[in-house]
Design goal:
Order of helices and strands: HHHHHHHHHHHHHHHHHH
Structural class: mainly alpha
Helix content: over 70%
Oligomer: single chain
Radius of gyration: 25 Å
């Protein structure tokens, strides 16, 4: 009886501890909406007006709050809800780590502090006007939803419970409907399932079921996109404007000779006008300084200038002049022209394209855990080397490659998420920090778990050696 009472008291103390941490998380994240207020970013109007180029979730989220609180007063409730979600996600990660790592309060607090640190750095060190959680932009929801997605995927791989798989699918569905970049969640799911159910365990039927479910999420997201546009515009289409991204990169790496790739005179005319203006403004790879940092920075500076400053006026101006289209038909025609140009320009020599991709992807890796500059580039290499080194040592010493070890599973999922995000984003757009920081706090949490295990194992060996010497 006394043992049961003792366990209950310990459980009560831990529960109080967790509640205190949740209160601390709420206090931290709710500070920003009341300190800065709702922050309107450059992209905000396109979400508020439910622009045809935007994915459905965030515009619908804002619409719901407008309906409840009215046009004049809905933004503050939006950022308060975003901040509460961020507090819950950070706390849930911390509690999950504690649960799986012998009830370690140290790791729990570190995990929470790493999530706090990302927000603090973005708000004050990066000299932004707000934290992402009180900004009217997709990151206000996306950063928290991604953490919750990783938690559910992690718990599913460790425990194989249906409720965790359902949570993984649910958060992936929300994220893909939030922004198309979050298709990386489906790529990560597929990669993790292949790693565990094909490479490690050879469970083919289970793998096929899980991959089928992943494809089902993708198809469901496309359906939701069409349903949303039918609700808003009365047309059964997905959101538009996805075609410009790759075209910007292909224009950036193209040369004068690539005009000969075009058979269609209209497309050739577009390309020649766009390419000539990009040359005039020094926006192509030929004008980039030497060095991968300089190349990736020049590419980032050129990307929007090519897309919004040149491609859009040229192509949209032609459509407005030649056709009497409304918004929907004009955007569909715009996508058709941009798609056709991109497919044609894929025939260019690939050397410069590979250079840009490599530099941009490595920039993504660095920005995922730090910030690209002369010293932090070296730090990022050291941090990744330490992470991989501790992971390899953990796998070898504990013989847990084919086992669902709680530390190495987390390390694999977190690093896999960073790798997938860096490689996918690096192929489509410049890797600015707001696209890359989804896994930053998670990286340091996973690293702290690996360090904790290494120190604990070293301490246990030392204790055993001392006993043997007595």
């Amino acid at each position: 009886m006394m043992r049961i009472d003792g366990r209950e008291k310990r459980k009560e103390r831990w529960d109080k501890w967790d509640i205190c941490l949740f209160a601390a998380a709420l206090g931290f994240y709710l500070f920003f909406p009341f300190y800065d207020g709702p922050f309107l970013a450059k992209d905000t109007p396109s979400y508020v007006t439910m622009d045809i180029t935007r994915e459905p979730l965030y515009p619908a989220f804002l619409w719901l709050f407008r309906r409840i609180f009215g046009e004049a007063g809905y933004l503050l409730p939006v950022v308060i809800v975003q901040s509460i979600l961020a507090a819950y996600a950070a706390w849930k990660l911390a509690v999950t780590v504690k649960q799986y790592k012998d009830g370690s309060r140290l790791l729990e607090v570190l995990s929470l502090c790493f999530q706090f640190g990302v927000t603090f750095l973005c708000r004050f060190v990066a000299i932004r006007s707000s934290a992402y959680t009180n900004s009217i932009m997709t990151e206000g929801l996306g950063l928290s939803l991604y953490v919750l997605f990783v938690i559910q995927l992690y718990k599913y791989i460790v425990e194989e419970k249906a409720v965790n798989l359902a949570g993984t699918v649910c958060f992936a569905f929300l994220l893909v409907n939030l922004r198309k970049q979050m298709l990386v969640t489906l790529c990560l799911m597929a990669a993790v399932f292949i790693l565990y159910y094909l490479i490690k365990e050879r469970r083919g039927k289970k793998l096929l079921l899980l991959l089928g479910m992943t494809i089902g999420v993708f198809l469901a997201c496309r359906f939701t996109d069409r349903l949303y546009n039918y609700w808003v515009r009365g047309v059964w289409i997905e959101h538009c404007g996805n075609s410009m991204g790759m075209l910007c990169t292909l224009i950036y790496t193209s040369g004068e000779e690539d005009g000969e790739l075009f058979d269609d005179e209209v497309l050739k005319g577009f390309y020649e006008e766009i390419s000539a203006e990009a040359d005039r403004q020094g926006l192509k790879i030929d004008y980039a300084p030497s060095g991968w940092v300089e190349l990736s920075s020049h590419y980032a500076d050129s990307y929007d200038a090519i897309g919004y400053g040149i491609i859009n006026p040229v192509v949209q101006g032609y459509i407005a002049e030649q056709y009497g289209y409304g918004e929907v038909d004009a955007m569909l025609q715009y996508d058709a022209y941009c798609n056709a140009m991109a497919k044609t320009l894929l025939g260019q020599e690939k050397g410069d394209l590979i250079r840009v991709y490599a530099a941009n992807t490595w920039k993504g890796f660095v920005n995922s855990i730090a910030r690209v500059n002369r010293y932090l580039n070296i730090y990022a290499i050291a941090a990744y080397a330490l992470y991989l080194g501790l992971y390899i040592v953990s796998v070898r010493r504990r013989g847990c490659w084919a086992k669902r070890d709680k530390s190495t599973v987390l390390a694999e999922i977190v690093l896999g998420g960073i790798a997938v995000n860096s490689m996918v984003v690096g192929a489509m757009i410049f890797c600015q920090p707001r696209y890359m920081i989804y896994g930053m706090g998670l990286f340091y949490t996973a690293l702290s778990v690996l360090v904790y295990d290494a120190v604990k194992e070293w301490s246990n060996r030392r204790t055993d050696d001392e006993k043997d010497n007595r």
